[in-house]
Prior knowledge:
Blueprint: E1 2-9, E2 12-19, E3 29-34, H1 47-52, H2 55-68, H3 73-82, H4 85-95, H5 101-116, H6 122-130, H7 134-146, H8 163-172
Antiparallel strand pairs: 1-2, 2-3
Helix pairs in contact: 4-5, 5-7, 5-8, 6-7
Amino acid sequence: xxxxVFQEIGPWVVEMQWHEGNxxxxxxxxxxxxxxxxxxxxxxxxxxxxxxxxFRGASAKLHEDVGKxxxxxxxxxxxxxxxxxEPMKKLRAELANGITAEYLALLSKEYVYRVSDxxxxxxxxxxxELGKSxxxxxxxxxxxxxxxxxxxxxxxxxxxxxxxxxxxxxxxEPPDPRRVDR
Length: 182
């Protein structure tokens, strides 16, 4: 992924992309799209539109953005996604309450996430982070399957959260004050 700068030129939007870490010179790709995609301007893109692209301005904007945010938006999202600190805190807190449906649903969610992310030995890593043995965590995942919170075959990596697990997880989430039910 990379960094993007957008410019509006008449009825067109210009999207310029620089590859992450390579911000010298011009963009690696340039896309020009009509603002109104359903009804593009008659005649299409003209040489006048191409001449109006401000590459220097885009480069200056890119450098300004990089100065403010050295790590790009997508990389920030990836880092947050990979950082398992908060989910593991919640998991440990629930485990302190015993082997409840809430704990098993959170454990299943963490396990499914790590498998789908391609992490090697997800059970072992979860066990290590919980301070439990691998066999204990495997046993908890077995219980999650028995309680219909996690699908999949015993002995095979992966699975999916069931409706029951999603319901338990939804009950655990604090209400979003921005949400307005109608």
